[in-house]
Q: What sequence folds into this?
């Protein structure tokens, strides 16, 4: 089952009837391009209907015959989930039947599924068991312009798979004009030296590009004349000016973090109360990952009568307006500052920890990770650091080959490498049950805490009840044990303790799945016996150090800390 149960009532306001979407008139030409080209790149603005309609076009055109599936990958789990809900509603089926989704630790699909939404990372993981991804007739890589590391790795794998599966069709959907770059990537010959043979001298392009009209209504973009000293203050001022001067319509405010959002919501609510009588009411709503699912979905509900909703890469932000009527985009910086911004963010593969992906590539039999066909190669320093970490964890041997069984098991576990090593060594420290719990609690992808309006003190008080001097891992362990024991896995307990009930329920499920992985490896945990002496915090911290030694630091004479690898100084801070 999904970790939350959403009706589709919140979605129709965001979407036009499918026949009115800009993509509708391109249906036949799109299907022709997909039929005749191995790779089709679809360029269109947010709101054009790419994500919801293309999979349905393909299913109707017969691409699911002979039991094949259509896969649509998303960079984020929440997108895979919510889009699947929408498409299942349009398709007229129960979620998990003909239309389903799969994300890490959660599979809402079945033997009857024909259209499957999933994250890029999960499709890469599927290749461990099925290297040619043979169950899929079409793989659509959505939001490719975001250039997540999983997307870039997946595109490299798909390029390899194409050579063995000429019948496979790949659709790449992007909201920005990077289409030529994607096409050049699939047209270029592989430079790998891992035994792959060259494929003749054919010059026929690997694919085609189709461009859609995305925005039906115009958007006016406005800039500041001079830079703002306090952009949160400026955002609030701008919201209130829009509210008093502009025609009806909701306002989206984009800020950089939870604290700014909470402050802005409070400031707007306070100042709106002082507006002149007769002014339309405001409803300021926060939206960020730390909120419960119900709180996040509340922003999609229709506003009360005579009330304006205010919710919180620049060109994509503008794309959120203009879907149902003309809109305006107020940019809180000057036009010169905007023009000085880079066209796109630095791809994640050039700025993040590569260890989980190097481990996956090695498990897929791609030993020469330096020569792997990346869209843009990662810096040599990042590759070197990732390889060094995996070697020190015992996942790679001195020849940079995957070790057996440790390295293979680490690759198979659906947690990052340092936690995988910790889990696989927990038995020897006598704390397997506790480490399983900690692994589940740290794999949720969001906070277990919920801060409700005006309840900041209650949240801090609840945190203190569970806090452990030894750190966050032991605190999370306390939360879980109390939830399943004293709390009896009930929502009331969570509400009283500022905890996210759905997240805690999900942690119970994740823990059970991780336990099954370990049992497959022959690592047993008998929880039918209530042990009188659970593992000590010392045992747990020693075990955590086997995986997270790279994060350890030594205290220096001046009170600062130096990480064990050297070169990075950390300062001690007071816990909040």
A:
């Amino acid at each position: 089952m999904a970790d939350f149960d959403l009706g589709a009532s919140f979605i129709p306001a965001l979407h036009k009837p499918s026949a009115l979407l800009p993509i509708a008139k391109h249906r036949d030409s799109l299907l022709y391009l997909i039929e005749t080209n191995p790779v089709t790149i679809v360029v269109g603005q947010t709101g054009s209907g790419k994500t919801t309609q293309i999979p349905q076009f393909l299913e109707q055109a017969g691409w699911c015959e002979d039991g094949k599936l259509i896969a649509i990958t998303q960079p984020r789990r929440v997108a895979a989930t919510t889009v699947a809900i929408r498409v299942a509603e349009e398709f007229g089926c129960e979620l998990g039947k003909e239309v389903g989704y799969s994300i890490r630790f959660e599979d809402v699909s079945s033997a009857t599924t024909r259209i499957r939404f999933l994250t890029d990372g999960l499709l890469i993981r599927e290749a461990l068991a099925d290297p040619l991804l043979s169950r899929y007739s079409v793989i659509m890589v959505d939001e490719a312009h975001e250039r997540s590391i999983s997307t870039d790795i997946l595109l490299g794998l798909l390029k390899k798979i194409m050579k063995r599966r000429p019948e496979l069709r790949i659709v790449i959907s992007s909201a920005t004009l990077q289409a030529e770059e994607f096409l050049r990537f699939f047209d270029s010959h592989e430079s790998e030296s891992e035994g792959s043979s060259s494929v003749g001298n054919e010059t026929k392009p690997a694919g085609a590009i189709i461009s859609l009209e995305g925005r039906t209504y115009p958007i006016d973009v406005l800039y500041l004349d001079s830079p703002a000293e306090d952009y949160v203050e400026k955002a609030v001022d701008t919201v209130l000016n829009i509210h008093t001067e502009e025609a009806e319509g909701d306002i989206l405010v984009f800020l950089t973090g939870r604290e700014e959002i909470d402050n802005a919501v409070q400031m707007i609510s306070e100042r709106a109360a002082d507006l002149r009588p007769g002014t339309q009411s405001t409803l300021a709503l926060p939206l960020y990952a730390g909120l419960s699912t119900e709180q996040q979905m509340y922003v999609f509900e229709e506003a009360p009568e005579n009330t304006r909703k205010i919710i919180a890469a620049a060109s994509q932000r503008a794309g959120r307006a203009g879907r149902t009527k003309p809109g305006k985009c107020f940019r809180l910086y000057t036009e010169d500052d905007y023009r000085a911004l880079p066209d796109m963010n630095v791809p994640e593969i050039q700025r993040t920890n590569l260890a989980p992906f190097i481990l996956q590539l090695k498990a897929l039999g791609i030993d020469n990770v330096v020569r792997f066909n990346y869209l843009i190669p990662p810096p040599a320093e990042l590759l070197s650091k990732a390889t060094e970490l995996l070697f020190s964890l015992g996942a790679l041997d001195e020849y940079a080959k995957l070790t057996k069984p440790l390295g293979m098991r680490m690759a198979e576990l659906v947690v990052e490498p340092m936690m995988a090593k910790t889990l696989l060594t927990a038995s020897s420290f006598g704390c397997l049950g506790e480490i399983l719990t900690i692994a589940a609690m740290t794999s949720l992808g969001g906070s277990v805490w919920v801060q409700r309006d005006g309840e900041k003190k209650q949240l801090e008080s609840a945190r203190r009840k569970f806090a452990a001097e030894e750190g966050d891992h032991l605190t999370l362990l306390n939360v879980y044990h109390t939830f399943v024991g004293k709390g009896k896995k009930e929502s009331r307990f969570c509400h009283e303790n500022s905890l996210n009930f759905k997240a805690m329920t999900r942690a119970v499920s994740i823990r059970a799945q991780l336990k099954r992985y370990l049992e497959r490896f022959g690592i047993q945990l008998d929880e039918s016996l209530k042990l009188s002496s659970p593992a000590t915090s010392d045992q747990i911290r020693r075990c955590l150090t086997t995986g997270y030694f790279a994060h350890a630091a030594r205290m220096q004479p001046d009170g600062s800390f130096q990480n064990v690898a050297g070169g990075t100084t950390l300062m001690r801070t007071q816990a909040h």
Q: What stands out?
A: The chain has three domains: 12-211, 219-337, 353-548. The chain has 21 helices and 16 strands. The CA atoms of residues 371 and 528 lie 49 Å apart.
